[in-house]
Amino acid sequence: MRRRTPSRRPAKVQPIGPVQTFHVEGLTHEAKGVARLQGKVTFIAGALPSETVSAQITKTGRHFDEAVLVNIIEPSAYRIDPSCQHFNECGGCSFQHLMDEQQLSSKTDWLKGQLRNVLSGQDLALLSDTSTKYRRRARIAVDNKKGSLSLGFRGKASKDIVSIKQCVVLTTSLQETFHSLKLALSGNDLASALGHIELLEDTKGVSVLFRLTSTVSEALESSWQVWAQQEEVSLYWQAPSMSKADVAPENMRYYDLDGLRLSYHPQDFIQVNAAMNQKMVAQAMDWLNLTDQDVVLDLFCGVGNFSLPLAKRAQSVIGVEVQETMVAAAKENAHQNGFDNVSFIAADLTQPVAHQFKKEGVTKVLLDPPRAGAFEFLDTIIKIKPTQILYVSCNASTLARDAEYLIAKGYRVLRVSLMDMFPQTSHVETMMLLQKKK
Ligand SMILES: C[S@@+](CC[C@H](N)C(=O)[O-])C[C@H]1O[C@@H](n2cnc3c(N)ncnc32)[C@H](O)[C@@H]1O
Ligand code: SF4
């Protein structure tokens, strides 16, 4: 087992008071060790349960203090060396010092706590995959202000950009592209015109999008096309005046899923973890157990990530999505994959939607909202009276709120699953199946 005794002192946090010894009892969702000093709770970033550490208070509050870890006196049996050399500074990951299994049990405990008011003894099924090399999309920050180029991510302790040599959660191909980009941008005129860079990997290959803050010459663009050819990546340019629709609409991306091919624009939402997306969609199909009698409403449907697998199994599917360009992509995806039993509607689900879903005979609803949840649309769902609601959530607190409401209106929780879409980070995704009470 790899162990270490690090000295973690994030920059720009000023300790106050002496170095003191703490015994760590718990772990927060954001990977802060929980200790008590004379009864008062102290959160120590980077400390793990059962550890004895020395730390220095950085912030005092009425109910709790915050402290910075100085030294680990007695390490946890579950502490490991982070696989990323930037872990102490980079804000991208928070759990790399904890074994994978304990990351999952810590997330499970946290999720159970978040859902305590809606669970009644159900076990949390666990969906997970590899804990590194899983990110197929990343936004790379560019800092060229001080004359030297930094490519990386925002820091843990400040908003400054941490210069990254290698990011181990990116897919292998994206790590290679990032490495090559770093070398090619060093001393290159393009560096001073860059706002940020978007890396993407899908079934079509790797792509790089340069978001510009100022225009660049045609000669410079051409030289980068040569680099792109050598690296076998597709290049997209977004000049300051260009909207998303202007970014190479003729050069859509695509990914394969469930025997289907889904096209999307390089700036459209797609699930970041491809392997987990496959598992998540498969689990959703399994849980919904569709027949050719089912009519399914897929809310917040994007480019049809769930809608088309649903259309394979159900009588018909209606997808709803706010972004018109994604609705257009979803329609094209249905057409290209030969479905005539799926339709898509562009609508903002936080506002009253004129469409009469009830008339369509919807039997089941799948919803996959952004972090804010779907509270505004719940009454419409309830009026439709689906027998089952499958809720995919990236925010357990809005899920808990929405599920509580659905339970109060006659549904019960059948199954829940923690989906570890973003290992090494504190993010937790959840799938919940609710059933209408008889
Ligand atoms: C978490 S993504 C899920 C997309 C899709 N289900 C998937 O798996 O790829 C949420 C989607 O909801 C859409 N969205 C966000 N706010 C919305 C709103 N108010 N009304 C309808 N769709 C919205 C976003 O554009 C995005 O495509
Ligand atoms: S996001 Fe990447 S660079 Fe940052 S800590 Fe995680 S693996 Fe390292």
TrEMBL record:
GO molecular function, one term: iron ion binding
Domain of life, per lineage: Bacteria
Record's keyword annotation contains Methyltransferase: yes
Lineage: Bacteria, Pseudomonadati, Pseudomonadota, Gammaproteobacteria, Oceanospirillales
Acyltransferase among keywords: no
Ranges of residues in domain TRAM: 13-71
Protein name stated in the entry: 23S rRNA (uracil(1939)-C(5))-methyltransferase RlmD
Keyword vocabulary terms for this entry: 4Fe-4S, Iron, Iron-sulfur, Metal-binding, Methyltransferase, rRNA processing, S-adenosyl-L-methionine, Transferase
Organism encoding this protein: Marinomonas ushuaiensis DSM 15871
Record-linked NCBIfam families: PRK13168.1, rumA
Catalysed reaction equations from the record: uridine(1939) in 23S rRNA + S-adenosyl-L-methionine = 5-methyluridine(1939) in 23S rRNA + S-adenosyl-L-homocysteine + H(+)
Bilayer-crossing regions: none
EC number of the protein: 2.1.1.190
Catalytic residues (positions): C394
InterPro entries reported for this sequence: 23S_rRNA_MeTrfase_RlmD, MeTrfase_TrmA_AS, MeTrfase_TrmA_CS, NA-bd_OB-fold, SAM-dependent_MTases_sf, TRAM_dom, U5_MeTrfase_fam
Function text: Catalyzes the formation of 5-methyl-uridine at position 1939 (m5U1939) in 23S rRNA.
